[in-house]
Design brief:
Helices cover 8% and strands 38% of the residues. The protein has 143 residues and is mainly β. Strands 2-1-5-6-7-4-3 form a seven-stranded antiparallel sheet, with no helix packed on it. It is globular, with a radius of gyration of 18 Å. It comes from Georgenia yuyongxinii.
């Protein structure tokens, strides 16, 4: 039968406590990771140690809106804060083994950009990166 695919037409993306869902403002959401860079000079002893630590982060694009309930405004108002997140790429309300949620905390970076190119009908978007502080943890629901 094949595996259930994640489609680009559903999403739950919650931040804060109490959690606010900003899926309606998002145009792209990717939870990804990169190799962490060590500080200073690396010795042969450092290089011989296995280090599988990765920095997880969100790369997000969303509409620009200064409305008090918008994602843009949430980031603006909470710059520098560490907040809880729940990312449900299947858009399901409750996590399951086959449609889990990803949970943890992330730090909101600099204030988001505002503005864009002139257009008679265009709408502005912005991009941001949110570094994960704890997690992500795969939440498959509970028994």
């Amino acid at each position: 039968m094949g595996s259930t695919r994640i489609k680009g037409n559903k999403l739950a993306l919650k931040f804060g406590s109490p959690a606010e869902d900003f899926w309606a403002d998002a145009t792209s959401v990717v939870l990804e990771n990169e190799e962490t860079s060590g500080d200073g000079v690396i010795t042969f002893e450092n290089a011989a140690q296995v280090d599988d630590s990765r920095q997880w982060f969100f790369t997000l694009s969303a509409i620009q809106s200064t409305a008090a309930t918008s994602f843009w405004r949430y980031l603006w108002d909470n710059t520098g804060e560490t907040v809880a997140f729940t990312y449900a790429p299947h858009g399901n309300a409750d996590p399951t083994d086959s449609e889990p949620h990803f949970i943890g905390t992330c730090k909101i970076g600099p204030k988001p950009s505002v503005g864009g190119e002139a257009s008679a009908t265009g709408e502005y978007t912005f991009e941001t990166r949110l570094d994960v502080v704890t997690g992500p943890t795969l939440d498959v629901g509970g028994a």
